[in-house]
Amino acid sequence: MKRLILPILALSLGITAAFGQCNPPTPAQNAAYEKVVKELQNQFRNNPPAGDWQVFDERSSLGKLELSDEYGKIFRICGDRYDLTFLQTSAANRQKARADSAKAIGDTTTQQQHSLVMSTDSVYREADPNRATDLAKSTVDINVEMNAGNYRLEEPLSNRFVESYKTIAVNGAPLALQITLKPNESGIAARPETVVLLGNWKNNLQKNPKGDKLYHYSYKKGGTLIENLVITIKAPFDVASEIVKQVDWKAISATLTK
After folding, report:
1. Sheet holding 175-181, edge to edge
2. 68-to-39, 71, 239 alpha-carbon distances in Å
3. Nearest residue to 19 via CA among 68, 55, 56, 60
4. Which of 11, 49, 133, 212 gives 20 to 30 Å between its CA and that of 141?
5. Cα Rg of the chain, angstroms
6. How far apart are CA 222 and CA 246, in angstroms?
7. Rounded to whole angstroms, how far apart are CA atoms 177 and 110?
């Protein structure tokens, strides 16, 4: 038994070492990433939905840019992405007040929940349906994944199921979708997503033996620089549509490696 345990342990440590760290980006990768993020900031920060909205949180992360493609057999644990959250001012003030109140009485659990960004998944998981509806209307998450090998429309393993979807025309984007997700077992209610895919994407929906429904991406440069973006807007369709119409998608596409 010991003879078996040692090789397995060595293998597991090797996998951890191989995939548990991000290699530093090269100067070319840094430049490509910064170029894309700068344009994303220019487009999304400057084009909030109409009304009393403000940027509540903005995040970006640069790991080693690699092809996250199951067909290419390269597993990428280091993500490269950009995320932006808008909140209506009244909602931002309420969230700050709850965090301040929790801090005053030493409620660390509530502090952690409300001092950080409340993602739309958290919004849709709220126990009170009326409160969940109000929060969903006052929160917009824009999540951008870079160099995705696939866009998974439906993924049974992660309990992501689609109630309905349709392709929509977006000027400057080869593929865009309006999606309504089904409620899932963890308590997240049905919710809308608008997805804009930039780069060499095709309308080639596939289904694999695992039950995944996905669009596959064909890389031209090998995925070492940023060739595509998957931009997910988590908001009611009318709000997302407003953002989509205001953004210059051609300007964002121009930052990608061709």
Report:
1. 53-61, 81-88, 139-146, 229-234, 191-198, 175-181, 162-167
2. 23, 9, 30
3. 68
4. 212
5. 20
6. 32
7. 35
Both tokens assigned to 174: 């080869």
Q: Which has more confidence, 92 or 113?
A: 92
- Measured over the CA atoms of residue 94, residue 95, residue 100 and residue 106, the dihedral's sign is positive
CB atoms within 10 A of CB 180: 14
- The lowest-confidence range among 18-22, 210-214, 232-236 is 18-22
Please state which of the ranges 18-22, 191-195, 243-247 shows the lowest mean pLDDT. 18-22
Would you call 114 helix, strand, or coil by DSSP? helix
Cβ burial, residue 227 (10 Å; 0-12/13-18/19+): buried
Residue with token string 């929509």:
168
Amino acid letter, residue 60: S
Q: Which of 60, 61, 65 is nearest to 26 (CA)?
A: 65
**Comparing C-alpha atoms, which of 87, 85, 97, 124 is closest to residue 232?**
85
Residue pLDDT, tens place only, 207-232 = 999 999 999 998 888 777 899 999 99
Quick: pLDDT tens for 42-86: 999 988 888 888 887 888 876 554 444 443 444 444 557 888 888
